[in-house]
Amino acid sequence: MADVRLTQIKKAFGKVEVLHGITLDIPSGEFISLLGASGCGKTTLLRIVAGLEGVTSGTVELAGRDVTALPPEKRDIAMMFQSYALLPHLSVSENVRFPLRMRRIGSREEQAEKVRDALETVQLGHLADRKPTQLSGGQQQRVALARAIVSRPSVLLLDEPLSNLDARLREDMQVELIEIHKRLGLTTIFVTHDQEEALSLSDRIVLLNGGNVEQQGAPSEIYTNPASGYVSNFLGAANLLPAVISETGDTLSARLEDGQSLPLSSDESRRGAATLALRQEDVILCPEGEGQIVGEIGTRIYLGARNRYVVHVAGTEIRVLAGTETVFEDGSRVGLTVDPARIRALPQS
Ligand SMILES: Nc1ncnc2c1ncn2[C@@H]1O[C@H](COP(=O)(O)OP(=O)(O)OP(=O)(O)O)[C@@H](O)[C@H]1O
């Protein structure tokens, strides 16, 4: 059964409609990410699930119960925000206990035990008596997470919870989130505008665009099968090249704007004007004349274990991730090869 069911959710602020009829079923225990550019409506949708924002029309059901008209405290959910808002005058354990006190959940002893459990889960048991100001940013974030999970809500809502952390801490917290999710099995809705974070954490990604669902699916599915140029572009993974697809005898090829052609897999069903999506790691650079097409190196960006090249090809620029064994100099002509099975043909954008 779906743990969270959103049906035709519309939301307007004044005369401006920002959600245009979102329908989503989230099964129990799933980790789902709402991904999308700033202003696409992610936070508004999350606040609607939490009950912090009303809907203009549509329904919110939690565990089969219509909660559309219920206030947040009557919904079995917890939310963790980007600004984790710990109470500075309370100790770590008192902060974590706070929602239990507010909702009058359990006796004092039961509350103390739940707090200990939650702090152990985020590995902060040893800091229970500290004040938030005596903690690092990452530790404060973990206290906020403990506070969100202490009442064992059936649904956990996370609004960009890692965006205030530096890159290293962020990675640690991502791993921790995955582990906690596995251990507790909470249905989790995670809002982010960071595609890598969404790809690495989620069972399913829902990509929003301007208040509509643009595409949803497992991370690998969305990554390898973007339904539109927008998705492909948003995932930051693919280069988009205009092309015309045609068949000559048994061979299928895509003619680029400068007349060069790339072979396509015979499985490709699209014909005519299209947009090719080539992922940066799928384009192989080689000496000019050895590739399927030619281009010219614009810039090389050194990334440590890899190089990223900007390559001018067919009147546009594409990005290519390559190893460091061979270095191609700026301005040199190169060949480019792509396995036809790795090329996606999207509608013309
Ligand atoms: N209380 C409000 N009153 C009026 N407009 C609002 C209100 N809250 C949000 N909006 C508008 O609704 C749209 C969606 O906002 P929302 O915060 O949901 O986007 P978001 O995808 O979470 O963006 P971000 O990643 O920047 O937080 C935006 O255009 C925003 O300006």
Automatic annotation (TrEMBL):
Stored PANTHER family: SPERMIDINE/PUTRESCINE IMPORT ATP-BINDING PROTEIN POTA, SPERMIDINE_PUTRESCINE IMPORT ATP-BINDING PROTEIN POTA
Compartments reported by the entry: Cell inner membrane
GO cellular component annotations of the record: ATP-binding cassette (ABC) transporter complex
Residue intervals of the ABC transporter domain: 4-235
Membrane topology label: Peripheral membrane protein
Stretches of the chain forming a coiled coil according to its record: none
GO molecular function, one term: ABC-type transporter activity
A Pfam family of this chain: ABC_tran
Family the entry assigns: Belongs to the ABC transporter superfamily.
Classification via InterPro entries: AAA+_ATPase (IPR003593), ABC_SmlMolc_Importer (IPR050093), ABC_transporter-like_ATP-bd (IPR003439), ABC_transporter-like_CS (IPR017871), Mo/tungstate-bd_C_term_dom (IPR008995), P-loop_NTPase (IPR027417), Transp-assoc_OB_typ2 (IPR013611)
PROSITE patterns, alphabetized: ABC_TRANSPORTER_1, ABC_TRANSPORTER_2
Entry keywords, A to Z: ATP-binding, Nucleotide-binding, Transport
Record protein name field: ABC transporter ATP-binding protein
